[in-house]
Amino acid sequence: MTGALVAGIGFRRGTEAEEIAELIERALALVGAARSSLAAVATADDRASDPAIRAATARFGLAPHPIAAAALEARDAEIVTRSARIERLRGVGSLAEAAALAGAGPRSRLALPRIASGGATCALAVRYDTTREP
User: Fold this and answer.
1) Phi and psi for 42 in degrees, rounded to 5?
2) What does the alpha-carbon distance between residue 117 and residue 134 come to, in Å, rounded to a whole number?
3) Are 34 and 53 spatial neighbours (Cβ–Cβ below 8 Å)?
4) Residue 116, exposed/middle/buried by CB under 10 A (0-12, 13-18, 19+)?
5) Are strands 64-67 and 109-116 parallel, antiparallel or unpaired?
6) pLDDT digits (tens, 9 = 90+) for 14-46
7) Is the pTM of this model over 0.85?
8) pLDDT reported for residue 132
9) What is the β-pairing status of strands 109-116 and 120-126?
10) What is 33-88 written as a DSSP string?
């Protein structure tokens, strides 16, 4: 499953890179996936330049993949966990789940709903495999 997963990340300002990276590692472990399965780390476009997310994604040999608010909102109906606070702030029930789905592309699906640490959330989405289509 090389490069099939996209991690979606939501995080509070001041969250350390180590916490974000460890949360991604935990998410991968929960689905039994290797680090090589991670194709991208997606987050809201207004957070993608934050030093913590940049440092965390660099540990996986990646850069943050920014997702526009409209793209996050377009995947809201597929979100399985909801936070009233994030819904008020972002217009989606889970930034992590929406970012994972939007970052993984059309017809992607959640592989792991949102998990959380003290200052961050992470969800995993699997890209749709077009090689299996007739």
Assistant:
1) -105, 145
2) 41
3) no
4) middle
5) unpaired
6) 999 999 999 999 999 999 999 999 999 999 999
7) yes
8) 57
9) antiparallel
10) --GGGEEEEEEETTTTT-HHHHHHHHTTT--EEEE-HHHHHHTGGG-----HHHHH
Give residue 24's pLDDT: 98
The model's pLDDT over 78-134, given as tens digits with 9 standing for 90+, comes to: 999 999 999 999 999 999 999 999 999 999 999 999 999 999 999 999 998 755 555
* Token code pair at residue 14: 């001041």
Among 130, 14, 5, smallest CA distance to 65 is for: 5
Q: At what angle are helices 17-30 and 51-58 packed, to 10 degrees?
A: 50
